[in-house]
Amino acid sequence: MKIIRASEKHSHGNQTFHVEILYPGTNLGKNDTGFLTIGRIDHALFKPPGLVPMHPHQDDEIFSYIRSGKMVHIDSTGKKEHLNNSYMMLMNAGSGVSHEESAEEDVEMLQIFMRPSANDLPPQVQFYQFENVFSENTWRLIAGNSADSPLKLRVETNIFDIRLQKNTAVKIPEWNEEFINFIYCFNGEIKIENETIAKGDCIILEENLQIEATAESDVVLFKIKKDAKYSESGMFSGNKFH
Known about the structure:
By secondary structure, this protein is an all-beta fold. The protein has one helix and 22 strands. The longest helix has 4 residues, at 24-27. The protein is globular. The chain starts with a strand and ends in a 17-residue tail after the last strand.
């Protein structure tokens, strides 16, 4: 079990756009800024009239995981979409795509930069309308390389989420020793054995341990294939700081 605390993140931004950036590999003492297929995770607060102007991505798989608020997405493929906490987006940048974002309401979200299995793949932008904002006490597959993934990643990783009510306990779904489990606490507080994991903290599990909520909690789980092939040269997901 390895833990990365929220206090170890890199803080950037201003009153309209503030981001806490997690470079998980760096916090684990590795030369690689990422951790396997995870390049970096940005925990962002985005407020009107905030605008992130048009900018490029290449060889990044970028999942906009919104938990509150609304924002507008415009990209170089001609798409314009209004995103919220049940209508989400995954950009597979591949050989190149550009986009801009503007806040319609106060947004709290994760911008998750995953690493593709190969460089220069065809660019695409995906959207998915989830039936519910939260998945109460049940793990929900939200993005990944499984055939039934709502949003498709081009790397051997599946991403799940769950809203745990206080005093509710669960285990890792579909436990398999071929996978490493990376858990991000978006909100609330959970306990694993004797460790308390609070908002913004992460924990890496290679054991099938119970996760118990000590308060209402929103949790994101990355199930990463241990031998997954991935690129370390993505524009934002690659082995570098921004």
